[in-house]
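queue> pop job 88
queue> type: inverse folding (structure -> sequence)
queue> payload:
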């Protein structure tokens, strides 16, 4: 039995694979956390989800306006 409190696991909402957890190779993933405000029907709710790189690419393809991509190589 593993203690789930020990390490926070992040699971991709798109495919269900664990993107962050103990003993896993480090992969980059999308992390979204949004607290909806007064002008939303979801006022007061905080939504959180993760997407692996593959699922993020699929999501991105559905966008009408492309994602803004900036070169951050300089940031280190
Ligand atoms: Zn995924």
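queue> result:
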């Amino acid at each position: 039995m593993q203690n789930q409190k020990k390490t926070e696991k992040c699971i991709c909402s798109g495919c269900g694979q664990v993107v962050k957890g103990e003993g896993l190779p480090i992969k980059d993933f999308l992390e979204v956390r949004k607290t909806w405000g007064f002008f939303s029907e979801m006022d007061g709710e905080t939504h959180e989800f993760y997407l692996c790189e593959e699922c993020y690419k699929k999501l991105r393809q559905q966008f009408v306006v492309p994602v803004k991509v900036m070169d951050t190589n300089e940031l280190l």
